[in-house]
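So, can you check what follows?
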Amino acid sequence: MSDATNAAKPAALPIKDAGPRGFLVSSPPHLAAGATTQRIMFEVLLAMLPLFGFALYMFRLSAIVLTVATIAGALAAEALGNLMRKRDQSSVYDGSAIVTGAILAFSLPPSLNPYMAFLGGMVGIALGKIVFGGIGNNLFNPAMVGRAFLMICFPAALVSFTPTAPMTAAGVDATTMATPLYAAAKQMDLPSMSALWLGNTGGCLGETSAIAALIGGLYLVIRGVADWRQPLALLLTAGIFAQIAHWIAPDAHPGATFHLTSGAMMFGAFFIATDYVGAPVNPWGRLIFGAGVGLLVMVIRLFGAYPEGFMFAILIMNSLTPVIERVTTPTPFGGKVEA
């Protein structure tokens, strides 16, 4: 879930605040009464605790520093944007900017300079959310906008991974280490499946442990905060694509299990692709969106210049969301009404 969740808000205001006719027309998505932004943000942050806990174990102080830096940047941009637009600061306290900052932090390498993380948080909120009109109006996932900015400005820093403290203690002697996806792209020795599931590998803060991401993601689905359609379609499509590629060239491409448990696949499927704003609102649209993300991730991983493609896949599918919604919106009862 991403800042997309930050789109959550009550479906209608009290009649005295909703205009002379008692109705408020606002941008989607429209949630049932009781599903407040604060409650959803709290649920998302709670679901991210397993990932944060494992990041603390693997990366120690870096996990705290980067998370604080990105959240601080996101909150600063949110407050500044409200000030410039002469709005109240309620969006600073609803938790949406905090979730955006946390998701951005979890998609960054632990060795990243904190000032870069702070800039990423600011740019993600400023260019990914505020310029579109604020909460619920953005087209692109703000956390991924922030990461794209950092990838453009600091490409070397975004692909530099240092050994984790547990690995260093185990005798790994190196200044940098290959992530599982980089190792696969260069046909190096791959980590064991147990290492991929548990997270004893190189990678970004929130993507090393597939089991931690799965636990948090299932919590969101069970609680009804995240829709199951995007993760299911995404993981199923990516898995099928990866397995077919493995059958065709087994020496060059690992199988489905490797790709589903490495990189940002599991984390992104549950915490980013389930964005309320950047994804379609109808069931078929969400299935198409998830399948599109899974397909693009695998195309980029296997044939692109980058070993990981989740950020690009999400941003591309965000841009296609209006088209998907136009195609998948059901016909109203009684037929279409001519304009």
